[in-house]
């Protein structure tokens, strides 16, 4: 072989020239071979298709579609389908949502700050009901077969595994003539944003995003009664109870918000475009045990969703709602969380027109109940964190406010007792008249004039009752419906929104109500009627609170104890002593009249 020297040595330059000559000859030979091969062996087609230039010259594949009665050609799309089922978990400090790519819907929606009755984190998804009627964020169309197909398809997710909000999750599905895109955006609140669209041959169809299957805190037969569909149109809210919800009924119009709720939780859609929003109410039923029975999932056990209930079972309603847009492209926020006043008042519809605070529906006396709860909320925020003590403090404050009225009532009662003999004399003159006799009006006029002359207000004794009764009914409608009292403890009471498990407060109610009737003077009231009330009122109060919210029993019992203490003190005053002396004299006189009289042929005569 030729010897190559170091370039720095003498004679090395000649060797370099020889090397460069050899390399140039090899390059020329290689180029010539390539030219000869290309000329005598033309390139064959790729086994996988045409070249890029040939593909560019080819027409786009199309499929036939019918539009407005005419058959046209629309571009075909490549299928987008997941190969297998997968899950994606989205989490922030408030919730942990598990999505399945089967249907691109939520199979679990855990609220971290709330527990079920078994002490486990509360899952807003009623798992067993969802298996029958559908999962949250599923699609609802007016074609049952299409709805089932879209909710069972395997979507391709943009992410799998665990992701942390703020985040965006997109699911896509393309097969045949259908293209579906579902995009969900999350932040650090109870609200997510949903952007869904279903295309058929490139044209949008109406597919609503739904929350169809109730809520996870509905664990026994009683808990389904508070379900309702709520919506707001032009800042006027409406609530449809279970019996008024028609499955598949569509409401069109401008909706600020719409959705479903139970006593404590809600799933409410807030459309981005309220004017073109459409709402479908969903109604179904399942069979659950009459008693709360744990099945490992924290829900009642439906035995035969389409059958008849057995001996220890009952059929209960499952209601929901779906929201879409008339254009077919649905863009909406979804609030899924507790009906807590501090949370709802900060969630507003598009354009900031109205908040979700009207979801707190407290019934006929709702306006009073609302302000009572706001008072409780203020006490909880600034005085004590225990809701039981909040109820006690509010009860004391209410009784202090009506104390002046109670004093006025006693003064009016004393005046009434003083003129009672004169009133009885007037009634005696007219006692033989029939009830329909016009002259009885003269009797009433004389009595009213007598009361007026003596400064007696005939309605004076009713004022405290007229004030307390609306408050009582307002508490009756409010206390079982506020999520803040759900599972709120106070001494032996584990849940102020549920009944006293040991019935201590209802028993205390009966005793205290009897003492209230015993200690409170009732001037002008018939003794027999007074005795009847002394027994009827305690029985009524015990019945009202036996299986009802223990918070109501606490309010009522504390109010009774304050009334007893107040009346006991007032009975020691000069006014109270005079009232009792007058009442005792009248009682002795009536007893004497009974002893010194006898009945002859149906008539009473004095001896």
Automatic annotation (TrEMBL):
GO terms for biological process: protein insertion into membrane; protein transport. The chain crosses the membrane at residues 18-36, 359-380, 386-407, 458-482. Residues 43-63 have a biased composition (Low complexity). It is a multi-pass membrane protein. Residues 387-572 form the Membrane insertase YidC/Oxa/ALB C-terminal domain. Its main location: membrane. Residues 41-63, 587-607 are annotated as: Disordered. Keywords: Cell inner membrane, Cell membrane, Chaperone, Membrane, Protein transport, Transmembrane, Transmembrane helix, Transport. Pfam families: 60KD_IMP, YidC_periplas. One of its GO terms (molecular function) is membrane insertase activity. The keyword ATP-binding does not apply. Belongs to the OXA1/ALB3/YidC family. Type 1 subfamily. HAMAP family: YidC_type1. Required for the insertion and/or proper folding and/or complex formation of integral membrane proteins into the membrane. Involved in integration of membrane proteins that insert both dependently and independently of the Sec translocase complex, as well as at least some lipoproteins. Aids folding of multispanning membrane proteins. Interacts with the Sec translocase complex via SecD. Specifically interacts with transmembrane segments of nascent integral membrane proteins during membrane integration. This is Membrane protein insertase YidC. It comes from Granulicella tundricola (strain ATCC BAA-1859 / DSM 23138 / MP5ACTX9).
